Amino acid sequence: MPDLNDMGRAKAESLRDRLKDGTLTPADARDELTQLWGDGVARPGMLLTSEEWRDLWRHAGHIHLYRETHDGPAQWKWTDRPSTKVRLYRRSNTEFKFHPSWTEDSEQEWLDGDTVWTAEFEPERLLATCDLHSTGNGETEYIAYPVGLELEVHRRLR
Questions:
Q1: pLDDT tens-digit readout, 80-116
Q2: What is the bridge-based pairing of β-strands 141-144 and 86-92?
Q3: Helices (H) and strands (E) in the chain, counts
Q4: What is the spatial distance between Cα 54 and Cα 92, in angstroms, rounded to a whole number?
Q5: Cα dist. 40→8, 43, 45, 47, 88 in Å?
């Protein structure tokens, strides 16, 4: 069984390195982040720092990731960034609370973690949206940058 914490590490690190050395185009960033986030990574926060993910997604531009069918390939399309603050939630243990995957769903019964964190995100902190798994759980995921925000405990689960 693959290590879920390590899935996609080589690809994520390659994207980061190409961004740092100036060889990653925004178009390649969009395409490759879509494939990585859609199919090649189980726990993205384990692969790169929040700052590295932020830089990659900002380079790609604000996009929405989706699938036309449940088993179809991940795709992207341009989308407008929200123009106002959005309250988001993340279920995780304390050490993972600043990772980039957030949602508007405060329940998140399908995720692991002992706490549901919440914060209001300014539009510039919202890097992309994803509807890759919506046929299974109804969630729209936000790829967001929480570092520097005052995260509040929405509820403790254990």
A1: 999 999 999 999 999 999 999 999 988 876 677 899 9
A2: unpaired
A3: 4, 8
A4: 19
A5: 5, 10, 13, 12, 24
State the SS3 of 89-138. EEEECHHHCCCCEEECCCCCCCCCCCEEEEEEECHHHEEEEEECCHHHHC
User: Does an H or E element contain 141, and which?
Assistant: strand 141-144
Q: Where are the alpha helices (DSSP H) in 21-111?
A: 26-35, 50-60
Whether the CB-CB separation of 116 and 89 falls below 8 Å is answered with yes
pLDDT at 137 over 70: no
- The pair phi, psi for residue 13, each rounded to 5°, is -65, -35
If phi > 0 it is left, if psi is from -120 to 50 it is alpha, else beta; for residue 113 that is: left
Predicted structure pTM score: 0.89
For tokens 């531009």, the residue is: 61
Centre a 10 Å sphere on the Cβ of residue 65 and count the other Cβ atoms it contains: 22
Q: Which residue has the tokens 């700052």?
A: 51
User: What pLDDT does residue 108 have?
Assistant: 72
